[in-house]
Design goal:
By secondary structure, the protein is mostly helical. It is built from eleven helices and no strands. The protein folds into two domains: 160 residues; 86 residues, no CATH class. Helix 4 packs antiparallel against helix 5. The longest helix has 36 residues.
Length: 268
């Protein structure tokens, strides 16, 4: 029950934030200023994490588990925030050319930081979003050249990024071959999803409820850190059953449709 209330406290503000911004009727200039502030703050956090880590650590660190650099934020959320900042920066460059000399170096440095840190959530989001937003705008050939060059350079320069790619390929191969995953981080993720799918089998229609997720997962997973499914669709399915999953999928598809239309409008 305590977990239920903690989640509600965290989620409720996110429900009202979009409505609050919509009700303010913010002007285009104010929106651009807010985006610029967000980009600058993320860049400062990136610089701070590099300063804490040190360049010698960056060029030699090869731990297959966890991020290269640490900050006060969760590393997955931080990588996604960095990815968002990159695309906000690109949008600001397009709409405000006078900011180009300031924002372009920041965007390039954050792309480097994203690959250097080796957190897969942000990296995958970066590549998918770049393809989604720019393949029509600047041709699929140029997009492919830019992304493949970025990937190749990162593999050559950053050993941590290279070992992350190698471990991801190895983990996928082990799943396909139905052998035990050797990487601790990937095993925990797979273990959490497997445990959740077992719990779903007896609660397919209505789910187990948000407050009982950890209780249902306890005797179905091997590690304590696997008590929450590491996949949003599986998490929703376990929490609210097939009905909740269908509602979530429909709402997500609707949001993606709106974003794609808005993106086409902004890039046109």
């Amino acid at each position: 029950m305590m977990y239920f209330f903690r989640r509600i406290i965290l989620v409720i503000p996110l429900l009202f934030l979009p409505l609050a911004f919509f009700s303010l009727r913010i002007s285009k200039n104010t929106t651009a200023a807010c985006c610029l502030i967000f980009v600058c703050f993320c860049f400062i956090f990136c610089c701070h994490s590099v300063w804490l880590g040190g360049f010698d650590h960056i060029l030699k660190y090869t731990n297959p588990n966890g991020p290269l650099l640490h900050c006060n934020l969760n590393h997955v959320r931080f990588s996604l925030m960095t990815c968002l900042s990159i695309f906000l920066g690109l949008h600001l460059i397009r709409d405000n050319l006078k900011f180009k000399s300031l924002i372009l170096p920041i965007v390039l440095l954050m792309i480097i930081h994203l690959h250097m840190n080796g957190v897969r959530s942000g990296i995958v989001a970066f590549y998918l979003c770049f393809i989604l937003f720019y393949w029509k705008k600047i041709s699929i050939g140029k997009v492919a050249i830019f992304l493949s060059s970025t990937l190749l350079i990162s593999l050559l320069i950053f050993p941590h990024f290279k070992i992350k790619v190698q471990n991801t390929i190895a983990s996928i191969s082990q799943v396909l071959n139905k052998t035990e995953i050797t990487n601790e981080s990937d095993f925990g993720r797979f273990d959490s999803i497997s445990g959740a799918l077992k719990a779903i089998e007896s609660n397919q229609l209505s789910g187990v409820g948000l407050g009982d997720i950890k209780k249902e997962m306890e005797h179905r997973t091997k590690y304590k850190f696997s008590l929450l499914p590491h996949n949003q669709f599986v998490f929703i399915f376990l929490m609210s059953g097939v009905i909740g999953l269908l509602i979530f999928t429909f709402c997500l598809a609707k949001i993606i449709s709106i974003i794609l239309k808005l993106t086409q409008f902004l890039l046109s």
